[in-house]
Amino acid sequence: MTRSARTPVEPVDDAEVVPVTDLLDPVPAADRYSFVDLLIEATSDLGTRPARLLMTLAGTILGIGALVATIGFAQTTAGQLARQFDAFAATQLIASPATAQTAGGDSVATTRLPWDAVERIERLAGVEQAAMISDVDLGSGTLTAVPVNDPSAPASAPPRLFASSAGLVDTLEGRIVHGRLFDDGHDLRRDRVAVLGSRLAERLGITRVDSQPSIFIDGLPYAVLGVFDGVQQRAELLDGVIIPTGAARDDFGLGAPGEVQARIAVGAGPPLADQSALALAPDAPETIDVAAPQGRSDLAADVQADVNLIFVVLSVIVLLAGGVGIANVTMLSVMERTGEIGLRRAIGATRRQIASQFIAESVVIGILGGLLGATAGVFAVLVIAVSQGWTPVITPWVAGSGVLLGAVVGLLAGGLPARRAAGVEPVTALRGS
Amino acid sequence: MSQALVELRDVTRSFPGPPEVQALKGINLSVNPGEYVSIVGPSGSGKSTMLNILGLLDRPSVGEYRFDGHLTGGLDEDTRAAVRAQRIGFVFQAFHLMPRRSVLENVMMPMLYSGTPRTEREDRAREALHRVGLGHRIDFLPGLLSGGERQRVAVARAVVTRPKLLLADEPTGNLDGATTAGVMALFEELVTDGLALIIITHDQAVARRAPQCVRIDDGRASTDG
C-alpha cells in the first residue's frame, strides 16, 4: 500500500548491526557453495567455444612448451656432450714419475716406474686395460724406410720412436688400418717388430704390410706389422713408430718405462688416482704423478648452464606473452559476461564468489595450457633426440613444473579480470544487457 | 493484518551528479505476503530503481526499508546476497538465461547460492519446470526455446528456491499477447500460494490484472485506480 510522501527520515546507519537469525535459514556446511561447486562452475563452459579456448591457450602452450623443450634440449645436448667428452677424456688415466727441477733448471724424474707397472695397474678395480709407453731417445740416430743413408735427401727431424707394451692402441681406443699389432710374445722375445702411426706410414709410403716391409731404426731393421689410427688422446703417436718395450731395452737401452696409460670406467677416476700411485710406488706414492679425470665433466655442466640461461629467458618472455593473452581474453570474457555476473549477483552470489569463479576459470585455462605445453615440449625433445640418434634426457620435475607454472600464470592473469568482475554492480549489469 | 513482507518508509534514492538526480522521492510502500502489486509509470520515472531497492540490489539514500520485519540498512553485502538467494526471486525482461547451459542447469543455478540441500536440487528444478509447463524441455538449450518458453524458464528459476518475494521487471515486454496471458496466469497461480509479487510493467493490461497498482511519476508514488 502506498502512503503519502512525508518528511524524509534520517539516513540509515550502515554500521547498524541487525540480527538476521530469523531472516535467513541456516545452511549446513555440506550445502554451502563449495570448492567443488566452484570447479564445476569454472569448467562447465570451458569447451563450449573451442576456437576461443585454443586461441587463449596458444600463448601458454607456446611459452610452457618452449620452456620445457628448452630445458629438455639443454639436458639432452649436455648429456650428449658429456657422453662424447667422457668417452675420451673421462676414461683415460696416465701415471708417470713425478719430476723435480735440478739446480741447472732441468726436469728430472724422481723415481722409476717398475717394469711390471701394467700388471700392477690392471689389478685395480675400475681399470679396463693398461699399457706402458716410453719415449725412446734416438739421439742422432735415424729412422728410414730404406737401408741406405741418402746424403742428398733433405734434412728433416726423424719420426718419434716409442716403446710400449702390447695393447697400447687398444687402451687408447685406436684402430688397426692395416695388418696387426705386436703382442706379448713379440715383447717377451724382444722381436724387432714395429707398428706405425697412420700419418707416418703415409709419409714413408707404406700402404701395405702383408709382406712385412722393414723400416730401419738407427740402422737396425724392424718389420712393420701394422698401421694404426684413431688414438685421439695421443695424436703424436700417429706421427711415430711404436716398438715393443723388450726390443727397446735391448737395442736402445731403455732404462725404465716412461708412463702407464690406462683406460678406466667412467667415474672411477678419483679413487684410481690414489690407488694407482700406491700400486706403482707403495713406499713413496707421492713420487708418482697421476692424471685422472675428476668425475663428471665441468665443461658439460657449463654448456648446459649457458644453453639453459639463454633459452629459459626466451621462453619466459613467450610465457609472459601467454599470460597477457589469458588476461586479455579473461578481461574480454568479463565484459561479455556482464549480464551473467549481474544475474549471479542478483540470485545471491557474493563478490568473492564471482571473483573466485573468474580466477578459477583462468587457473583452469592456465593448467590446461601448461599440460598441453609440457606435453608438446617433451614430445619435441623426444622427436628431435630420436631423429638425431641421441638419448633424450629430461628431468621429470620439468614437465610437472610446466603444469604448475601454467596454473601460476593463470592465477596471475586472472587477478585483474576477477577484480573487475567482482566490482560489477548487478544493477548496472542487468540494465546494460 | 499480517506483518508486511516489504515496507518502504520515506525512501529517497539520489544519484550524485552533476547534475544530481533524485530517482525516488519519499516513497512509501507496503506489500504483504500473497499480495500482487503492479508498478507502472513512464520510462525514467524511477520504477527500476525502486525494484532494485526492493531486491536488495541497491540501498536507499534516505529512508528505511524493512524486509520481513528487518531493517535492511545495516545488513552487510554478504547477508544481502544471502537474503536475495533465499528470499527473493527475480524475473527480467531480457530473461538472462545462460545460453550454454541446459534449461535444467539454468533453473538449478540459484540453488548453488541459496544453500538448498544438494540432494534436492535437481528434483526441485524438475518440479519447477513441470509447474511452468516445460517438463518436456528440460534438456534443451535456451536458444532452442520460444520467447514465452524462455520467460517461463526464468520464472521457474526465480521460484525454485521458494522465495517470499518475486520481483519481475517488464516480464512480458518481449512477449506476444497470447504468451503474455500464459505467463501472467502463472504469476497469479504463484500468488495464490502466498508469494508476494511486484511487477513493473508498461503494459496497462498487465497492470490492471493486479489488485493493487502503484503509479510512479518523476520519482513519486501514487495509488493508481
From TrEMBL, chain A:
It is found in: Cell membrane. The chain crosses the membrane at residues 53-74, 309-335, 358-385, 397-416. One of its GO terms (cellular component) is plasma membrane. Pfam families: FtsX (PF02687), MacB_PCD (PF12704). Keywords: Cell membrane, Membrane, Transmembrane, Transmembrane helix. Residues 54-266 form the MacB-like periplasmic core domain. GO terms for molecular function: transmembrane transporter activity. The keyword ATP-binding does not apply. Residues 313-426 form the ABC3 transporter permease C-terminal domain. It is a multi-pass membrane protein. The keyword Membrane applies. Belongs to the ABC-4 integral membrane protein family. This is ABC transporter permease.
From TrEMBL, chain B:
Coiled coil: none annotated. The keyword Metal-binding does not apply. GO terms for cellular component: membrane protein complex; plasma membrane. Residues 6-225 form the ABC transporter domain. Keywords: ATP-binding, Nucleotide-binding, Transport. Gene3D superfamilies: P-loop containing nucleotide triphosphate hydrolases. The keyword Flavoprotein does not apply. InterPro entries: AAA+_ATPase, ABC_transporter-like_ATP-bd, ABC_transporter-like_CS, ABC_transpr_LolD-like, MacB-like_ATP-bd, P-loop_NTPase. SUPFAM superfamilies: P-loop containing nucleoside triphosphate hydrolases. PANTHER family: ABC TRANSPORTER ABCH.1, IMPORT ATP-BINDING PROTEIN. This is ABC transporter ATP-binding protein.
